[in-house]
Amino acid sequence: MAYYVDEHIENTERVFPEPGRYGTLRYDMNENPEGLPAWFVEEVKAEITPEFLSIYPEPGRFLEKYAAYVGVRRDCVTATNGSDQAIRYLLQTFCGQGHDVVTVAPSFEMYWVNCNILGLHHVPVSYNDDLSFSMDNLLAAITPNTDVVVLLNPNNPVGDAFSREDVVAAVEAARAVDAVVIIDEAYHYFYPNTFIDLTQTYDNVIVLRTFSKLFSLAALRLGVIISNPEIIHYVNNARLTFDANALALLFAERILDHPEIIDELVATAVEGRQWAVDELAARGYETRRCEGNFIFVRPNRPAPEVAADLAARGVLVKSWNSGMLKDYLRISTGSKQAMEKLVDALLAVDVA
């Protein structure tokens, strides 16, 4: 049967996460290994009535609170079905077919995946072999054919963060060629600096946030786009009528109603991350402390082999078969208790 398939979708190769992660110790996808406090989850669940589930989602109340939380006007924010969906909307709206999307490399895979799907030209700017990055190289990649520049701050998977000087240089270089800059702040809460203020002083800056990492709502899928009213207007034109679901919006709104939970989650994550770095270093491991909720560890044996042995024990970590990160395990971090379980498992399998 000769049915039509879009050529860009037909030629895109996708790799999806392996199933069977329930019931495992999950340190592979930068989730919170333990999630939100049980009392809080039960409290919010009590609000979920049959009537609540029968009504189409209304994001307005959440967005009012979120805008106040980050210090911008209500018309400067919109909600999406995870930041994955936000990336699709932004590239679809602000990049013409065949035009350039400039990103660092390696970076979050959904940027190049969406470039492939949408027929956009992905321009990756590589890190150096020592995992340092030259902003001059990225600035040189911005040309009149560039429509979008992407900076992850902190970056996933490398885990570094950009200085304000470098980000402003990228924003101004992009503005000179009429390009927008997406600053993906998925890991912002593990690193205190933010560039939301630039969305209010430049007309081409967009910040992404997610509720999947610190806020531990990966299952519910909620992302937020923060920019100026004109950009938000165009994104809303592209957005599905009912995008973010009502359960995600409810849980997110209640998190904002309990700022003490946010403070506790940050403190717990920071303590666990630092404990893991110190403990593994004391055990003789080369470690790389990152600005997100993950660290890099160079095991004694090939990293993919160690990751496979850990998986056989129900402990999941991230490894690469090639590229500049192939010698490392990327390990998501959580509480000190969660990290003790990870270190015990690693020591059990990683025998030189």
Q: What percent strand?
A: 15-25%
* Series of H and E elements: HEHHHEHEHEHEHEHEEHHHEEHEEH
How would you sum up the major sheet? 7 strands, mixed
Give the overall average pLDDT.
95
Uncertain runs: none
Secondary structure: number of strands = 12
| Rg (CA only) | 21 Å
**How widely separated are the two ends?**
55 Å
Write the topology of this structure:
Layout: H1 7-10, E1 25-27, H2 38-45, H3 50-53, H4 60-70, E2 77-80, H5 82-94, E3 100-105, H6 109-118, E4 121-126, H7 135-141, E5 146-152, H8 164-176, E6 180-184, H9 198-201, E7 205-210, E8 223-226, H10 229-238, H11 246-257, H12 259-282, E9 286-289, E10 294-298, H13 303-312, E11 315-319, E12 329-332, H14 336-349
Parallel strand pairs: 1-11, 3-4, 3-5, 5-6, 6-7
Antiparallel strand pairs: 2-8, 7-8, 9-10, 10-12, 11-12
Helix pairs in contact: 4-11, 5-6, 12-14
